[in-house]
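Hey, I was hoping to borrow your eyes for a little while. I've been staring at a protein lately and its backbone has me curious. You're getting the sequence in one-letter code plus the fold written as tokens. Would you mind checking whether the tokens look sensible for this chain? Here's the protein in full, and shout if anything looks odd to you:
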Amino acid sequence: MNEDDGDEDPTAPPVQLNARPLLELAAAELCHSLHDVSERRLRTLGKSARGALLAATVAAKTVDAARVRCLCPGLEAVALVGAGVSEGCVVALARECGSQLRSLSLDGAVAVRDSGMAAAAQAFPNLTRLSLENCRVTDRGLCAVGASCAALCELNAAWNGANISDLGVCAVAAGCPRLTLVDVSGSSVSDRGLSILAAGCPGLRRIGLRQCERVSEA
């Protein structure tokens, strides 16, 4: 008698399902109707679900301060990237996450000015990774980072143009001695600033310097 082909083999290994893509798909569907979900309900979601929803709202360019306020509490890594991110989003993030946040990306968030960056730096003293690529941050913003983020290990401030100079780099060197990676590509940083950075951050392993015209060739 032949066995039914539909019977399961008890010796076969269990099928492993990756829940992450399913979570991301569900988040992408839900992010457009978040305004119909109460803030209290959103806050009861787990960190993974809220993180996926936040990423989906950013991707859909529907992120705002209210969504940030609901989705960010307890998260240790947040990426608020793109031109749709307002300074209000960063202020809301600062209020909700505070010292819990370890990694923050504001890449391309051109609406966030130095004042917002200063508020964020003061609220996130335990940041170890900060990415500010192409977001119009200036030396003033980097000075705020240097004054408040002593635990920082990685800083990406690339492609902010002449707004980043030796002044900002020196402030970071003085306040963030644990830095191992710094990218200031496209800036007006000079050899002097790099020397001070290297002296202030002895563990520095990599410095991004693409299109830094004031840096001499090694």
